[in-house]
Fold:
Amino acid sequence: PKEFRDAISSLSCEQQQFAKAFRAMQLESTLFGVLVVQTKPQLEKVLNLPYDCLSKEIKLTQDLMKLFIDYQVPSDLLAFNTADATVGGEPLAGTSAQR
Structure:
């Protein structure tokens, strides 16, 4: 117990609560799993964007994910082609990674 307290002492309050709950579940021999799904690389593939171009576009990524979730847009209807990207004859600017 002392080693555990020492190990989590530098964590935030929320992280400490999570660690304590997780440890309690382990001690009760309850099965618990954590899955991390990387959505940005898949979002870049769906939108036909260069690799890692959304890494610093946090707000844009959040907005895109919200649109996907709210409107249940199928991924086969989406693509972004910079060569065809114009509005009123003016080319659209890409993300900062594309410039």
In short: The longest strand covers residues 86-87. Strands lie at 86-87, 90-91. The chain is about 45% helix and 5% strand. Residues 13-27 form the longest helix (15 residues).
